[in-house]
Amino acid sequence: MPRLLPGTSPETDVYALTDDGLSLGRPVLDVARALLGSGIKILQYREKEKKAGQMLAECLELRRLTREAGACFIVNDHVDIALLCEADGVHVGQDDLPVEAVRRLVGPDMIIGQSTHSPEQARAAVAAGADYIGVGPIYPTKTKKDVCAAVTLDYLDWVVKHIDLPFVAIGGIKRHNIADVVAHGARCCALVSELVG
Fold it and tell me: pTM score, two decimals?
């Protein structure tokens, strides 16, 4: 299996994301310890409702834990926090800072991922210099408040055929449907509620 993130992360097929609201009242650090202890090698910190100071404190500890576990650590949206905690990468959405601007801030060595929902966005992410793309949401999902409509397996099929960049499939992926996502060419799948819940 090829690396998801060139040069930094171990080969893996599961990309885990944190979500305090889906963690059954358990602190994000406890959930992260359990994920890393189970062998997760890519962990994204995605917390939308917390204050910056709390996010930084959690990310500093997650950076320590991921280093100890030999795992890649990605921060969602917050380039400043990714820099301050020395994360391996930052993941941005379509409405966040553009990839080119993020690259100017983080330099050449930090991984930049970008969410994409269409062929046009995938091509733009490649042209902008993203290191990997998110492909989804494959299925309807409620883990994000501002999520777009599901892109279905059709968009995944298109990415597999046309995009040479590493990618992670995301959105509504669960135990009962992950085999279908893999059958359509996804080599790495992101899961949220299925893991943290």
Answer: 0.93
